[in-house]
Design a protein that fits this description.
Distance between the termini: 61 Å
Order of helices and strands: HHHHHHEEHH
Largest sheet: 2 strands, antiparallel
Number of helices: 8
Length: about 170
């Protein structure tokens, strides 16, 4: 189907060209002399779309936010300001589970720490000690979801996220 479209578009654009210099559309398709079997058209189109989306997903992990912007986001979602004292209590308490946030991120979270289960090194969580923290909203949201489930046995509310961020931002 796309081969048919390309050959139709190529021939119509070259026949409609009245000047001797190639038009943009005809020069664009002049290198497409390869005709693919029809059964390859759809898979190649899907591959092209997947690679394009992968590029978009990769770019989504570029810095798109800041700790302060994320705090504002969660405060707006909660309808209340983040409270650093509540955030510290949430961060350091186990809430009936085996771990607290501090179990893996340290207390205070200002230097490298180790995951309580895997032993993997975790960079400082406080933005003043690690400027890469809380710079990608999607990444922060993913880790809030995972870690809140580990610590609370459920997802954090918007208020809890705002409180933890207020606590972490206030660590200087």
């Amino acid at each position: 189907m796309s081969n048919h479209y390309l050959s139709r578009f190529s021939s119509s654009s070259s026949s409609s060209s009245s000047s001797s210099s190639p038009s943009i559309s005809s020069s664009l398709f002049s290198s497409f002399s390869l005709r693919l079997p029809a059964f390859l058209s759809l898979p190649l189109l899907c591959l092209s779309a997947a690679l394009t989306l992968a590029g978009v997903a990769t770019n989504a992990h570029a810095a798109d936010s800041s700790a302060q912007a994320q705090l504002t986001h969660w405060e707006q979602a909660a309808g209340t300001s983040g409270n650093a004292d509540r955030g510290m209590r949430l961060f350091t308490s186990t809430h009936g589970q085996e771990w607290s946030c501090a179990s893996c991120h340290g207390k205070p979270p200002t230097q490298d720490a180790q995951h309580a289960n895997t032993g993997k090194t975790i960079a400082p969580l406080a933005p003043a000690y690690n400027p890469k923290r809380f710079t990608v909203l999607a990444k922060s949201d993913k880790w809030f979801r995972r870690n809140c489930n580990d610590v609370l046995g459920r997802e954090c509310t918007a208020t809890e996220k705002a409180d933890v961020l207020a606590y972490l931002i206030n660590i200087k």
